[in-house]
Amino acid sequence: MIIAIDGPAASGKGTLGKRLAEHFGFAHLDTGLLYRAVARVLMERSIPLTDRDAAAQAAQNLDVSHLEDDSRLRGAAMGEAASVVSAYQPVRDALLAFQRQFGAQEPGAVLDGRDIGTVVCPDAEVKLFITAAPEERARRRHRELLSRGEQAEYETILLDIRRRDERDMSRSTAPLKPAADAMTLDTTHLDADGTFRAALDLVERKRPAKVGR
Ligand code: CDP
Ligand code: CDP
């Protein structure tokens, strides 16, 4: 059983993915961390993000353990850098097998990202496309950064989010878009609890008998 969650930056994919995974006893993978980790390898070695070969090599050799505990992967700069290297096809190819293996776990897995329903797990039983207005997403990210004690300007975050969305949607390889069979959930006026309840309703409507521990 695979639950695929896609959507733009700060729409609440990760928060929802974690909640759904806990609810069903599934494993959860935030696939954005993989692209962030590739970007970090280049940045740490002072290799320009435009070096496609180096990015592909970093993706092939990536240590995928403990990414969720690595605070250096969080933050706006790494998200922006991830969006640059994620547009390279060989980078995406190198990360595909790991994501598919993750999705094959029993009793199930939740993966969130940009292309889970379209490319990584096109046969996922449940596909959710999570959206929210850019202004609301910027407010959420702003709040998140301030609560971690980081300096952040709302207007700068909004510009970053718009630019990243545009790049993710317009790239030729695995662009951000809902799969044809995805259910879209607009969370502009929903908090994390409301989003979880609405998503659970969609999941259970889709797989009434088979979902659950
Ligand atoms: O994974 P993604 O970038 O899509 O978003 P996230 O990291 O799950 O959520 C970004 C921030 O928005 C977090 O601080 C969440 O707690 C918050 N959030 C929210 O305020 N309302 C929601 N409906 C979902 C998330
Ligand atoms: O948390 P947030 O939504 O801000 O970003 P993320 O999910 O960590 O993703 C960072 C960047 O990685 C995105 O802007 C995408 O360019 C890329 N990404 C991707 O191309 N495909 C995925 N499945 C996940 C992330």
Automatic annotation (TrEMBL):
It is found in: Cytoplasm. Keywords: ATP-binding, Cytoplasm, Kinase, Nucleotide-binding, Transferase. GO terms for molecular function: ATP binding; CMP kinase activity; dCMP kinase activity. Its main location: cytoplasm. Signal peptide: none annotated. InterPro entries: Cytidylate_kin, Cytidylate_kinase_dom, P-loop_NTPase. CDD domains: CMPK (cd02020). One of its GO terms (biological process) is pyrimidine nucleotide metabolic process. GO terms for cellular component: cytoplasm. Residues 3-201 form the Cytidylate kinase domain. It catalyses: dCMP + ATP = dCDP + ADP; CMP + ATP = CDP + ADP. ATP binds at residues 7-15. It holds the Pfam family Cytidylate_kin. Gene3D superfamilies: P-loop containing nucleotide triphosphate hydrolases. Its EC number is 2.7.4.25. Belongs to the cytidylate kinase family. Type 1 subfamily. This is Cytidylate kinase. It comes from Microvirga lotononidis.
